[in-house]
Amino acid sequence: MATFFTMALLAMAYPLKSFDIGQSTRCVAIPNQMKVCKDVGYSEMRLPNFLGHSNLEGEVVPRSEAWRPLLQTGCHPQAQAFFCSLIAPVCLDTFIQPCRSLCVAVRDSCAPVLACQGYPWPEALDCDRFPAEDDQCISSHIKFSLFAKDLPKPACQNCPSVEDGPALKTVVDAFCHHDFAVTAKIHHRRLPMGEPEFEVEGRVEFIRQGPLLPYDTQHLLQQWLLINLQCANILVRPGRSQLFVLTGFVQRDGILALTHVFPWHKKDVNIAVAIRKWKHHRC
Fold first, then answer.
1. CA atoms of 265 and 39, how far apart (whole Å)
2. Are 162 and 261 in contact (CB under 8 A)?
3. Where is the NTR domain (predicted)?
4. Which ranges of the chain have pLDDT less than 50?
5. Which pLDDT score, from 0 to 100, does residue 149 have?
6. Most buried residue, 99, 183, 200, 267, by most Cβ within 10 Å?
7. Are residues 243 and 201 in contact, defined by beta-carbon separation less than 8 angstroms?
């Protein structure tokens, strides 16, 4: 379940001081199979990298792929730039490391995701190791619009209550007492390496929209599943798809919290009746 994050931590376990900035380096093309850094904005990288990796196929590519699940959670918009600046540093006349400010920004957003899997922020990525802000490092420069800040965000949380075969009143009360209620089909597939991947299939249908945005909700739930892997594994068995009714709140700080999950099986007449009744129901 959490093996991907274990691999990511192992990939980051090599101390940065193992790289000697005075040693001989070479420039190589970022390979196509290194998908994590393929669209990072440059095409060539230095070897050895800042994590001390010198073998492209044996170290750099597999270790970069181990970071992909963390990046897919969207824990920080500059997480890719930070990690790729270490594992695939840009090939220029001088060595360009991430600035301390970039490390701090990414750490503060992504460390809680690792903590959700039971792991601390790696010591190898101690932000004090990186240079202070200057012209020779990659800084944290993205400015977020007020609109982006107002979008609901997923976070690590206690697993929501899962109730099979609920009574009609239970479902209707859940619609009444929560900010939103949606139906979503979640697919649990296994990657070639045998690790689980969760996907929200098709459209998310609104029963009660509340503060959710139509164009953002599918992506929001997808990120919630990637962050809360332990909860996701409880919901769907490997190789299966399951339709759910999900209810919850968007808290004052914009964090999405799922509180009730109803697996919707064909035999669950009460859920279908509750959705029909809701259109004319007064709480």
1. 41
2. yes
3. 156-283
4. 1-4, 13-19, 144-147
5. 53
6. 99
7. no
Domain limits, the chain: 3-143, 149-278
Confidence at residue 147, expressed as pLDDT on a 0 to 100 scale: 43
Distances from the Cα of 41 to the Cα of 45, 46, 64, 81, 103, angstroms: 11, 15, 16, 9, 19
The three-point CA angle 69-32-53 to 5° equals 70
Classify residue 252 as exposed, middle or buried by CB count within 10 Å of its CB (0-12, 13-18, 19+): exposed
Q: What topology is assigned to 3-143 in CATH?
A: Frizzled cysteine-rich domain (1.10.2000)
What confidence score (pLDDT) does residue 98 get? 92
Burial 119-134 (b: 16+ CB within 10 A, else e): eebbebbebebbeeee
- Cross-sheet strand order for the sheet of 256-263: 161-162, 256-263, 240-250, 180-190, 196-208
Model confidence pTM above 0.85: no
What local confidence, expressed as pLDDT, does residue 58 receive? 86
Distance, CA of 120 to CA of 123 (rounded, Å)? 8
Q: What is the pLDDT of residue 18?
A: 47
Q: For the chain, give the number of residues.
A: 283
Q: Cα(222)–Cα(219) distance, rounded to whole angstroms?
A: 5
Residue 186's pLDDT is: 97
**Cβ atoms of residues 125 and 107 within 8 Å:** yes
Q: Which tokens is 282 given?
A: 């007064």
Six-digit token string for 228: 């809360």
Phi, psi of 228 (to 5 degrees): -100, 60
**Amino acid in the structure at residue 193:** M
